[in-house]
Amino acid sequence: MEARLLTPPLKILADENLPGLQSLFAELGELVTAPGRHLGAADLHGVDVLLVRSVTQVRAELLQGSSVRFVGTATIGTDHVDQAYLAEQGIAFHSAPGCNAEAVVDYTLNCLWQWCQATGRDLAQQRVGILGVGNVGSRLAQRLQALGCELGLCDPPRQRREGGDWQSLAEILRESDIVCLHTPLTREGEDATWHLFDEATLLQLRPGACVLNAGRGAVISAEAMVKVATARPDLSWILDVWEQEPQIDPQLLSHAFIATPHIAGYSLEGKVRGSWMLAQALYAWLGLPFNQPLSSLLPEPAVAAVHLNADADPSLPMRLIYDPFQDDRALRALFTRSPEERALGFDRLRREYPVRREFSSLTLSCATNQLPRLHALGFSQAVSSAVKRVDV
Ligand SMILES: NC(=O)c1ccc[n+]([C@@H]2O[C@H](COP(=O)([O-])OP(=O)(O)OC[C@H]3O[C@@H](n4cnc5c(N)ncnc54)[C@H](O)[C@@H]3O)[C@@H](O)[C@H]2O)c1
Ligand SMILES: O=C(O)[C@H](O)[C@H](O)COP(=O)(O)O
């Protein structure tokens, strides 16, 4: 148990891209915001609590000699934080496990649906291999299974802990039409994922397969991916994360079927839930009650209910919520510019990301027999007369 050394008023430094800051943290003291990518030791003068996103490297170089006692990251991934150093220094650390997992699943289903449409496939008929079956992977498995997809699951740490029916990476590569990567980025130990997909691994993909990476870029070697994509034009790539963000290899981008700027988890719900989970953790650490419900931070969605007519395209509600090609076009448009401008543009696209709601924010009714399939995709079912309905 960590000693609680702090009592309000506190000085809190937070990434300017965390939503809900005023409402969640302002009463604890002085709240200062800054762009996270370039935070340096000089910014931490007198700071007690540091709240970051994945773009801030939280390591000894940043924290040495600082007054910070609590670090929170409003993200699922924690590879940007040296947790061993924090523990050694007695600095409390909290992340936001699962905060944007639903958003990543929405993104993944939407992109896979688009890929199937473009290549004349039926998503329900595909065999999907999922690598990393945690908060994201297990939700994805549930929704794909409800759609009727055949699944292969690979998660060696869970396999060792729980036993049961799992596949090896080699089996996933050999048997899957679609391979989805949802592992953390780790560099040490028997499950290390850094460059887990090198040239030899990628060459084992079955003909015509699609790889989707919404985990961390460096789980696939970018160099190997360019080589294999060039040699194997039968393969498709859906990439939300990139080795060396915010720099992206233009060659790799040119091979991607869908390319997005690390926004798979960027639903409004996901981002707000991240901040809210940090507030819960900080209040608990301070020994203070925290009573703010998550719902108080979320506005009503612009469209809360949709009725699909008999001839409506069943992918319509997915596209209504989110069109990955909009993000894809915005990212590719940066590539007429210099490398420096592209990197700045990558961060700008993320900073100014438009409001995107989760599938579950939309209640569907339907005049066709598509309803069970749409509900399996994650849309809500109950139709209340109180919600605004749009007929399409
Ligand atoms: N693109 C985005 O916007 C976005 C959003 C959220 C999370 N992420 C990334 O996705 C990752 C997964 O998220 P999550 O919430 O499911 O995390 P999680 O920790 O709940 O699950 C990760 C799973 O991967 C498994 N795993 C670890 N090493 C593995 C290996 N070598 N092979 C197969 N499985 C392995 C773990 O056992 C665990 O079950 C995060 O660590 C984060 O880096 C990206
Ligand atoms: O790990 C996560 O939660 C996601 O990758 C998250 O969406 C990262 O977003 P960022 O913190 O870079 O804004």
TrEMBL record:
It is found in: Cytoplasm. Pfam families: 2-Hacid_dh_C, DUF3410. Gene3D superfamilies: 3.30.1370.170, NAD(P)-binding Rossmann-like Domain. It catalyses: 4-phospho-D-erythronate + NAD(+) = (R)-3-hydroxy-2-oxo-4-phosphooxybutanoate + NADH + H(+). Residues 115-264 form the D-isomer specific 2-hydroxyacid dehydrogenase NAD-binding domain. One of its GO terms (cellular component) is cytosol. One of its GO terms (biological process) is pyridoxine biosynthetic process. InterPro entries: D-isomer_2-hydroxyacid_DH, D-isomer_DH_CS1, D-isomer_DH_NAD-bd, Erythronate-4-P_DHase, Erythronate-4-P_DHase_dimer, NAD(P)-bd_dom_sf, PdxB_dimer_sf. The keyword Lipid metabolism does not apply. It comes from the Bacteria. Keywords: Cytoplasm, NAD, Oxidoreductase, Pyridoxine biosynthesis. Its main location: cytoplasm. It is an enzyme of class 1 (oxidoreductase). NAD(+) binds at residues 155, 183, 240, 265. SUPFAM superfamilies: Formate/glycerate dehydrogenase catalytic domain-like (SSF52283), NAD(P)-binding Rossmann-fold domains (SSF51735). The active site is at 216, 245, 262 (proton donor). Residues 297-378 form the Erythronate-4-phosphate dehydrogenase dimerisation domain. Coiled coil: none annotated. Homodimer. Catalyzes the oxidation of erythronate-4-phosphate to 3-hydroxy-2-oxo-4-phosphonooxybutanoate. Belongs to the D-isomer specific 2-hydroxyacid dehydrogenase family. PdxB subfamily. This is Erythronate-4-phosphate dehydrogenase. The gene is pdxB.
